[in-house]
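Researcher: Next sequence.
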Amino acid sequence: MTRLYLIMLFAAVILASCSSNEKPMSKEEQFVEDLLEKMTLAEKVGQLNQYTSRWEMTGPAPKDNAGAQDLSEQLKSGMVGSMLNVIGAEATRNAQKTVVENTRLGIPLIFGYDVMSMAYPLHQIHGN
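Model: Next structure:
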């Protein structure tokens, strides 16, 4: 009889540990989950791409604006998730509008600016 009680206790512990105590998803979490389910693998990989603008290059600039058409097509196809060094509200708005209005899911870009934190040596800043 003791053996039966031990088996029942063991089964109860196993069943209790299998119960789901997950909280329901928030609206934001559900939105993200739904969006990820809609995305193709190519779109997910595209969101990982970060391009720099032609206005403020931090490396060698392409000659004769080479690649500008390719960048435009990449933006329109959703293969860019973020951009660096886009200067000005108009340029930012135009890039964002291109992506939101032309891509399948309308996922907006993330913008950043590549700034060197040590552009000025500390002794020049502090006057030493």
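Model: Strands lie at 50-52, 82-84, 110-112. The chain has a mean pLDDT of 79.
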